[in-house]
């Protein structure tokens, strides 16, 4: 038994043994075996390597965004030897992936979420995953060979450029970047920010959303998606943005401008005016990948919390923290909330597998809102248990909190999903009102039929000054 893998008082209970009962019938033997290999790879290889990765990045901004830690390439080779590669591309929609369902990959993504390097080591890191799906689903054969192949091989990385600093980008109809046809080329002008991944020197392809037809009366037909190689002249990465003080190097989040950037017309994806369709198609499975990784992060926070609660060296008021009841209550609540959130994510994954992301809009939106809240709550409890150490660099919790906090904003802020859920739920209002009225009427008819009357059972009709009628 490896001491790097032990997870209970009885030793190690493997990931496949811990698959929730509700999901078990949907998981193949091959996927269960792969899940165990993912768990072992993450716990034994990736989590210890996180520390090396952080140190190999370097110190100055120029260094941090030019580096490519060798530990990562070593992990990528190991992952490929173990058959842990491209597990994210679901088998019922793509032939290029490792042949797992969204549910099966969802279970694996949970473990990847426990390490800084594990997702990239297995070529399952955002934003590449969503970007590969876009090219695989909507790209031409030429685009696939030029960009999808090296992405699938983990040789290059990619960025998705939608958000702009000068407009409220959670409403993508506001996007202003122009994409203008000029002969057999398109010319791009405008600014983007929060371009995740663009700091990585291996990021060679940008998937850019802009407007080819800004005057179209249908505001959802104005946008297009186009592929821009990083070498195209006229692109400036002005600066990198920090996330609550963390720079997320080397991939980072860039503030970028495009000044008369020219790309061949053949780089247009799917055709002019199809941009909305593409960005909506991109976000479905990606959201549950984020959610599953967040479940893994929450598990990791709880594990760190349990380690602190049982630390013999640090006993406030003469007792282990685990002997203070309030802490055990926080552990129990965390267990309940993580387990419930996991079921919601697995349910969304099953729904996507049964239809597609469109058929699972409600379930995806539910987990997009629910899981980051659970993750942040659990990390917050773990931070509290560590006292000052919890907000310092001595635990991974502070950085996990920063990353977890962004999940309430990325891929659309909470409010957008909540409003949409609320609006759709409200559509059932009239049906419920008429059914409730019909049931009340039938109840009254039955009361008369059974001779029990329809008067209110608590009816008293006592006038002022009257005594009890008994
Ligand atoms: C770490 C990180 C990584 C990111 N990576 C990428 C990336 O790779 N590519 C990319 O293109 N973008 C990326 N983004 C950007 C992200 O998708 C946007 O920040 C997000 O969509 C919100 O857009 P906005 O920042 O323009 O905020 P705005 O649209 O200005 O919204 C601001 C706030 O208004 C409120 N709001 C918005 N809509 C409503 C509503 N309907 N009802 C009530 N309140 C509302 C919300 O509180 C929202 O947070 C990233 C962001 C972060 C933080």
From TrEMBL:
Q: Which GO terms describe its molecular function?
A: acyl-CoA dehydrogenase activity; flavin adenine dinucleotide binding
> Which cofactors are required for activity?
FAD
Q: Which GO terms describe its biological process?
A: fatty acid beta-oxidation using acyl-CoA dehydrogenase
Residue ranges occupied by any Acyl-CoA oxidase/dehydrogenase middle domain in the UniProt entry? 159-261
Q: Which residues form the Acyl-CoA dehydrogenase/oxidase N-terminal domain?
A: 30-155
Is Heme found in the keyword set? no
Which cellular components does GO assign to this protein?
cytoplasm
Q: Which UniProt keywords apply?
A: FAD, Flavoprotein, Oxidoreductase
What protein is this chain from?
Answer: Acyl-CoA dehydrogenase NM domain-like protein
What organism is recorded for this protein?
Answer: Lophiostoma macrostomum CBS 122681
């Amino acid at each position: 038994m490896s001491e790097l893998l032990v997870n209970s008082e009885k030793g190690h209970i493997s990931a496949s043994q811990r698959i929730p009962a509700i999901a078990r019938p949907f998981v193949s033997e091959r996927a269960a075996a792969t899940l165990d290999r993912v768990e072992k790879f993450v716990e034994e290889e990736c989590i210890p390597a996180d520390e090396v990765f952080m140190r190999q990045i370097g110190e100055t901004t120029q260094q941090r965004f030019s580096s490519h830690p060798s530990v990562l390439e070593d992990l990528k080779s190991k992952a490929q030897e173990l058959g842990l590669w491209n597990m994210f591309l679901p088998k019922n929609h793509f032939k290029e992936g490792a042949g797992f369902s969204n549910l099966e990959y969802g279970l694996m993504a949970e473990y990847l979420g426990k390490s800084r390097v594990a997702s990239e080591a297995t070529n399952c890191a955002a934003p590449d995953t969503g970007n590969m799906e876009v090219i695989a689903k909507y790209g031409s054969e030429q685009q696939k060979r030029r960009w999808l192949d090296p992405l699938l091989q983990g040789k290059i990385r990619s960025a998705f450029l939608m958000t702009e600093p000068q407009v409220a980008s959670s409403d993508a109809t506001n996007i202003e970047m122009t994409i203008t046809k000029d002969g057999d080329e398109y010319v791009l002008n405008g600014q983007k920010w929060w371009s995740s991944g663009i700091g990585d020197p291996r990021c060679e392809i940008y998937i850019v959303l802009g407007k080819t037809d800004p005057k179209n009366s249908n505001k959802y037909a104005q946008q297009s998606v186009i592929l821009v190689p990083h070498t195209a002249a006229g692109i400036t990465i002005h600066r990198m943005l920090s996330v609550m003080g963390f720079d997320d190097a080397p991939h980072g989040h860039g503030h970028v401008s495009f000044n008369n950037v020219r790309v061949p017309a053949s780089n247009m994806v799917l055709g002019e005016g199809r941009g909305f369709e593409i960005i909506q198609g991109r976000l479905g499975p990606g959201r549950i990948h984020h959610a599953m990784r967040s479940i893994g992060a929450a598990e990791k926070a709880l594990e760190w919390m349990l380690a602190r609660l049982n630390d013999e060296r640090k006993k406030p008021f003469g007792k282990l923290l685990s002997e203070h009841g309030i802490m055990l209550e926080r552990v129990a609540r965390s267990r309940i909330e993580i387990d419930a959130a996991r079921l919601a994510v697995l349910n969304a994954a099953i729904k996507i597998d049964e239809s597609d992301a469109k058929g699972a809009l409600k379930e995806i939106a539910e987990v997009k809102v629910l899981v980051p809240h659970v993750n942040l709550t659990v990390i917050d409890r773990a931070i509290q248990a560590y006292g000052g150490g919890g907000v310092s660099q001595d635990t991974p919790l502070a950085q996990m909190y920063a990353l977890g906090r962004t999940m309430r904003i990325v891929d659309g802020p909470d409010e957008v999903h909540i409003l949409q859920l609320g609006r759709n739920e409200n559509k059932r209002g009239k049906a419920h009102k008429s059914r409730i009225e019909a049931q009340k009427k039938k109840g009254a008819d039955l009361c008369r039929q059974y001779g029990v009357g329809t008067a209110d059972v608590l009816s008293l009709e006592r006038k002022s000054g009257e005594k009890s009628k008994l």
